[in-house]
Amino acid sequence: MKRIKNNFYMLKLMWSASPKRLIWELADVLIGVSIEILYTLFFLRFIIECMQESVGFKTVIFYIFLYFVANSISRGINAYLKNVVVPETNVLIQSKLMDMIYNQALNVDLSCYENPEFYDNYTKANEEILDRGNSILENMSSLFYIIISTISYTVAVLIYEPIILPILILSLIVVNYVNRHYVGAKYERYKSCVGERRKMDYVKRVVYLQDFAKDMRLSDIFHPVLKNFHVAAEDMRVKTKKYGKTAGIYRLINALVAGLGVFLVVQGIIIYRYLTLHTYSLGVLTTVINAANSLNDSLLGLAWESARFSENGAFIDNFREFIEYKPKMVDNLEGQRPKDMGNNISLCNVSFTYEGAKTATLNHINMNISAGKKIALVGHNGAGKSTLVKLLMRLYDVSEGEIKVDDVNIKDYCLSSYRAIFATIFQDFKIFAATVTENVLLAERTSEADEKRAIEALKASGLYSKIDNFPNKMNSILTKEFDDDGISMSGGEFQKLAIARVFAKNCSIAILDEPSSALDPISEYEIFENMMQACEGKTVIFVSHRLSSATLADVVYMMENGEIIEQGSHQELMNQNGKYAEMFSKQAEKYREEGVLWA
Ligand code: ADP
Prior knowledge:
By secondary structure, this protein is an alpha/beta fold. Helices cover 64% and strands 9% of the residues.
């Protein structure tokens, strides 16, 4: 039942993407099946009887010509459908389905990406649905065609030779049973290889994407990666062969029962009745043989297409499961809206454990960040600084405790309005294949004012003079993904661009999660200093493992193993002479040795 619903669900989607396609498919089926039935049941008999009754040659030729014209029209419609309508509407249908997948991918919880089962489902939905859409339409058209022809041929067989009907039905039952197992084996084969396909796709991405190109050339990392590919390919081969053998045996049984066995028995009965019992004339004999053969074909087609119908239903399950996944973190559109500026943040006893992790990453964090303060989160790698930032942005929800902004639990805010009060740059920020302006605004440029804002932001981050030298200036396309003349810059320059994003967004709170790690300590210090000036009156939270920048903060939080171990101004922490002072002195020493004098 669920599979039937799935097929109709898909049909509805396709109708909304392209009604034209469905109308053409329907016309093709109706005209095609009418002409076939006309030919099988009436036309041959009619011609033979014309000849037996010595009707003039010209009349016979005229009827043949009429049939030829009707058949040509039907084939013309079919050719137009398959060569013009199908390719064109496939694009519409595919883009509708991809739109749905992409939009849902944006909605699902971030934690889903860390869940292999979810990821497999996502891969399956993506991989399959485009081809499936087509297959569903073909299948439904064929089913429609076959149901009409089956009814017509059954009526003919019942009129002339009802004895053969039970034989055909018996064969149908056997074929149907075998087909179900055949389709099951095929689906099992597909399902069992999803993990392998994902691994193979990963290798494909690693080879194609520029991100990995340098490391691949300068190291031997490609060999272990390729080894994984070969292991996955071998596992896939073994599974494919195992299920392939089973599927092959089912196909053979079908061919023997339905094709050969039934064909011989049915023909034998009809010819016996014609020769010995003279039950019907030569003209009727052609109708009976044609009807019996066509009914056999239709019933086999029916078994086959219903198995495909059920197979399609199972595949659509993956797609629906993904599309209908309800994110745990929903945008509460009715929720409160935080004020635009001057927000106070407080974390009360916040703990957090990543999904599937055995231990908590953050433990009982308490913080009070007043509006306009400059906050530094410092500590060694893995201390939990980025996780804290992600909780603040509500990319994940806390496992225990609560985060409040202006005394309201952040879960009570409308998610999109809540996130809008932040401008954040992560360490692994991404540059998009879009113009410089769009990359700075992280949105479409809709007016001159937008561009001016992006320019001012780039000036503040120190990158504008470089951009101004490009032939297309702010309209230059970054990366070479979409444009051969696309622009690439150094890691440090891209970081400046990312920092400009914070300057460009008129937000209450700026968060910088080590975006400056590719810069030298002096440039980092300068950028942070710039940021403090540009963000006057705004709250700035910056994460760094370089303590030089912490001197700029009003309050420094030192983190270790998911806990805040020290807090206070730089000077207070130095006076405490604890872990912060120790780390600071060590780093100052190191930079002094390297000749970088900042402290
Ligand atoms: P920091 O920013 O201080 O370097 P993170 O917050 O990135 O630290 O990481 C803190 C801990 O959480 C690390 O042990 C890290 O392995 C773990 N961690 C980070 N992201 C995830 C994740 N998505 N799933 C599970 N564990 C994670």
